[in-house]
Predict the structure of YfkD-like protein.
Amino acid sequence: MNRRKHSIFLILFVSFIVMALEPSQILAKEKKESFKIPSHVLNISKDNTFPNSTEDEEVIEPSELTKELTDSLDIQIENPVLIKMLNETTLNPSPIAFGYRGMVYLGRWPLNYESLETTINWEYQQVNKNELNNTSGSEPQEINYIQQEQKEIKGALTNKISKPSDVKKMMLLTAKEKTELPLSYQTVIGKNTKKDNTYKVPSDKLAVLQSYAPAVNEKGQVTFGEVYVKLKGSDKSIAVKNVTKQGIGAWIPIQDHVSFSYKLK
């Protein structure tokens, strides 16, 4: 009897663990699926007549000195521009500088970006339209995508913020990491770019093949603070004062991808 009770207890315990894990696993799967490229969106990187340059944002690693200066902070510094500046800073207070005190103001900086919502609009901006009129035809025909004019698609922040260039870099790095998509604030689709994908056009029908550039909509908040370097004798550290947060959003195009919408009239 005791062995039976023990078995029942084990089954209940394992079931509880599985039930506790399932919601997080489902959430992770749904999150991954939300960034999956649908079948009506095609990669044109090899077909694009305009060679887009890949916008690879450099991930700046903090130097040993920068780590030493920021380790004691309650606020995380992720701004690559600020980290690079701190890496290039040379501080060598004299070991015999007893009583020496100093504070150097480095300015007010965006320190980090926290992503709160990331979504994709697969029809962010219309870039092309191909039509085929087969209303008077007796046989089915085919239509395929051919870019009529060169189109430049630009992303941008959705509201004003201090040091927008730094903020855009942090948001781009975050969005790339979350979506694993080729993102860039600017992408171009060259004239006469084409794909081999074809669509059937029955007789007595007008076919319209519309093309769109997709983009990621990134929303979150930026933490700002006044950054100081504190020197006290041979000791050195970073201090952050007057910390504030500001909400921000951005549209970031998906480079070299086109979304298609096909309709018959």
Q: What stands out?
A: The CA atoms of residues 48 and 174 lie 27 Å apart. Helices lie at 2-34, 64-70, 80-87, 164-179. Confidence is low (pLDDT under 50) at residues 93-98.
